Amino acid sequence: MEEFGIVYELLNIDPDFADTASFCVKYNYPLEYSGNTIIVASKKGPERYVACIVQASSSLNVNQVVSQLIDSRKASFASSEKVVQLTGMMIGGVIPFGLPQNMAIYADEELKTIDYLILGSGDRSTKVKIAGCERI
Fold it and tell me: CB–CB of 44/73 below 8 Å?
């Protein structure tokens, strides 16, 4: 992240609290300042995967919004096994940095309105707090 000039803080956490809702309660962070990087798969046509970053306080509209973005009639969350295979990261720890180069990344427009965002870091024992979400 340094090579991209991204200001961040690494937060060491208990892996039992890596899931976003549990993390927010345990470490006293509001849901709207935490995000989830969700890998979505096309279900019709050619196999495609995209990463979607959304605030933890909102939901991802896979079949109406994401399917249109990836030009597929239908889409769904990628399986845990496929996420690990594609990204090398654990569920609950996926971060939009270091993903395969051919994987598109879509970020919710609302992320531009917050001062910082907490994301997974690739594993379940740390989170990354990123400053200045206007760059996402």
Answer: yes
- Give CATH for domain 2-135: 3.90.960.10
Q: What is the pTM of this model?
A: 0.87
Q: Please say whether the beta carbons of 10 and 126 come within 8 A.
A: yes
Q: How far apart are CA 103 and CA 82, in angstroms?
A: 13
Backbone angles phi, psi at 130, to 5 degrees: -105, 130
Q: Where are the domains of the chain?
A: 2-135
Q: Label residue 29 left, alpha or beta by phi (over 0 means left) and psi (-120 to 50 means alpha).
A: beta
Alpha carbon distances (Å) from 116 to 6, 20, 26, 105, 132? 12, 15, 18, 18, 6
Length of the chain, in residues? 136
- Rounded to whole angstroms, the Cα distance separating 53 from 36 reads 6
Reported as a single tens digit per residue, the pLDDT across 63-104 is 778 888 888 888 889 999 999 999 999 887 899 988 999 999
Determine the residue type at 19. D
